Amino acid sequence: MADNDNNLKIRFPLWKFLNQPVFNPQNPLILNPKRFWRRYQLEHLERCWIRTYRPEERFPN
What is the rounded average pLDDT for all residues in the chain? Predict the structure, then answer.
C-alpha cells in the first residue's frame, strides 16, 4: 500500500520555482520555497477542480 501512496505524491516544481517572473504584478515573486510549494499545491487543486470528468467519452460503447 505504501508504494501506491508514493505514486500519488506531487514533487516540488523546482523548475517553476526557479523560473518565476520577477516583475509580474499578477504573479508576485515568492522566494520562500515553502510558501511557493503551498501556492503551487493550491493552484494544482484548482486546476483539478476545473477539469470535467466525462467517462462516457473515454470508453465509448
Answer: 81
Question: Grid coordinates in use for 40?
Answer: 503551487
d(CA 35, CA 37): 5
Domain assignment present for residue 27? The answer is yes
Q: Which domain holds residue 28?
A: 14-51
Q: How confident is the model over 6-23, as pLDDT tens digits?
A: 566 778 999 999 999 999
**Which of 11, 29, 32 shows the shortest CA–CA distance to 20?**
29
- Output the 3-class SS for the chain: CHHHHHHHCCCCCHHHHHCCCCCCCCCCCCCCHHHHHHHHHHHHHHHHHHCCCCHHHHCCC
